[in-house]
Amino acid sequence: MSQDLEEYQHIIEQLKPMISEPEFNQALNQQAAGLSKSKRFLIKMELKRLARPCIRVIDLRGQVEGEIREFEYAGIRHFLDDAAIEIFERQVRSFGDYTIGVYESVVNVNSPSRTLYNKLPSAIPDSIVENIKDSTPYNAPNIAFGDFAQRHEERMNYAVSIEVFTELNKGIPANTVDVSVSGLKIKVNQKEQFKLGDKLLIQFRGLEGEYSFDRRQSVPYIVMSIEHKNKEQRLSLRRVSDIPVPEFDHFISRFIHGNKRRYKVNMDNTLEAIQYKMYEQYFMPNFSGLPVFIECIDDEYSPRFAMANDCNRDILQYWSDEQQEMRLGYAFSHARIQRILNRPRTQWSTFLYVFNHLKDDKVYFYSATKEELLANPIMMTLFLGYGARKASWRIFNIQFSEMSMEQAHIPLSIPDSVSPAVKRQNTPPPPRLLAKLKHLTHFAVITDITDEHSHSGYELLPIRKEQIGALKVFGHPKNRPPKEISAFRFKYFNQRKETRYQLRTKIEIFVDDILLDGVSEDVSVKGLRIELQSFYHLPENSEVKVSFPQLQKVTSKYALKDLVYVVKGISPERNILHLQAVNDLVNNTAQRFFDELIRKNKSRLVAYKEEEDIPGIGTALRNVYTQNLVHCAFFIRKDGINFIPDALAMQQKSPRLQSLLNFDAEPGYSNLSFLYHVGLDSQDFISTTLKRIKPHQRPVARDLFIAFNPSKSVREGAIKCRFAEQFNSHKERRAFINSALKNGQFIGIRVYLTRTGRPDTEFLQSEINYIGVYAVHKAKVIEEQLWNIVGMGELIDISDDIMQRFQFSEEEIKHNAEPIQHEIKTTKIEQLLRA
User: Fold this and answer.
1) Could you read off the pLDDT of 664-680 as tens digits, one per residue?
2) What is the CATH number of domain 501-607?
């Protein structure tokens, strides 16, 4: 690229996706509106050159440090490293094919290790370079789902001179930024004094020359917000509704309609809405907790609905009894809910300890909250010690949140006037749906935080067999079943092709002359999900033969032995398999049997409700949940070969976790560096995990032990962290916690991380289409950003339970929960250079 065009590189990058589109000239004129025609012509010719097809082979062998592998595209074999492949694919998505621009983007890129310290001047001292090297930017901007403005009318970018008259009749010159029928944004000198609620009169001086508009016409406004920026301040104004000015309404409405393509509609709120929804649509199919919505009728709390996805459905399955009836309601009795909600909001959480007992082919559930156990220390030791020795032992983290019915509806960011389809989407839920939800007051998110290390501490507690009978006070009687909870799965484009039904039955699989025992978790006509009692050693797409000894007892029509299935998915622990039935002229017994079984027993089999009893209920519950997020969610993007934090969402503040995230972070950002400075096998956790797992695989979960001392000025001294499995013994883990308490604070975090799939653009389509009407290039850029998100994770503070496992006193646990005050510091490159 010539030096004449280097300063316009940002314009060229934005216009790359538009080069083959009919709207290219319009997009060019918008992006380069401030440039001369000759400059615009040069940019156009450069883009045409970059878009020419290319057949040149790219061979980076011996030129870069990364591992080179063969990469084929359109019949041409290239030799690239991972960073170059990422750039190649991204540029192909921009240009639509392999072009000169793709070639130049790949071959002109620097070494894949493109970090800040590689680019610093050699005169900078080594100590400063090392500090900068260690401060890799792991700060992510904080976002809030659903926190965007809806416009009730279109707003147009338009700059014109105005005069502002205050209530003291002082005239102040100003300029508009954008304008709508009922609102206005203006910029005015910083020295002028305004406050929220000020009433102003505006005269549009700049309109009188070009348009037949009365310069003496004053339009009343009120100040809604004030933003200070550089040497000016920007005021957002709203029309005073009780003083109509019909002539101005008519004029401005016609003016916007006739000029919005010329001056561009202001789409800032829509761009923000798409960005937040982009993260939300990655979050919904991958969150690990199960939201349970609670209603209150006549001062009686009870669970009513649950919102399921593929990552949390194991919780529903765990609470199913021998008749496949869901008994999750046992966990949410009125007394338990009321005790938690009577505490301060910052303490609306608990740990629930559960195990079940099988007697006479019936499943009996036993559960107790942490507070219930603390009330009786002797029973606490017995319950935890006995329960942790059972295979059915589970520890659940439960966090509550308040909700309101107004949150059930989130309109689009664009006004009804855009199209009939938009108007339909902006319409509030129907009365029938609202009536179904009107008693909901709270919801709780229940998350399974059990792992092998959660057993180890409690298993050491001494128990006496003669006392075990006393545990019946924690048992849930089968003759008083809990209220039924209706589970809904929010409609997501990537949901299963057919309904799966919960069915636990013994199975046997035969592979490599080895017989493996297990149980089915759920079934469909063409698929099966099973849990084995041992390790599965073969790869995906291998064939297995499955037998159903218990189901065989109920049918003589089908031979349910050695049915052929293909392994389509394997859990990280290699004990849970997703199977697909082989269906041909010879092997079709499985499909025929399960088709008949499901048809004849639909009333008895439990399935997720794909077809909603009340249309829109899944969307309503989703809207409530995302606006009251109780867990900390973070999102990872791919940048070359690196995995970088892209955003963090956390509506409900956890003081201890918030303090950690704020350390060494600028206002409005969170610091996730601790996830990158702890790893397994000398590799950081984020990169290693995301390279290993596949999209829509169950999240990888780890318990992270952190010693936090915010009095230290640098991360290395302030944050020391290790995963639970990196300790050699139970004793080492306790010693780490003890040291953390002496020097600052111990924070235990359950970390979940999963790989995201392809983006659900249907969820964003109305707003993307709207942007495409006025700025197609921006819509293309948004879609590019969507594809760059590759990972999603969650952080849950489980410090109290971990300390309890290691038998710290309740006084020590409460003292550790108190937030440590520290000054939030930011490390600027300029400060380092001045050191």
Assistant:
1) 888 889 999 999 888 66
2) 2.40.10.220
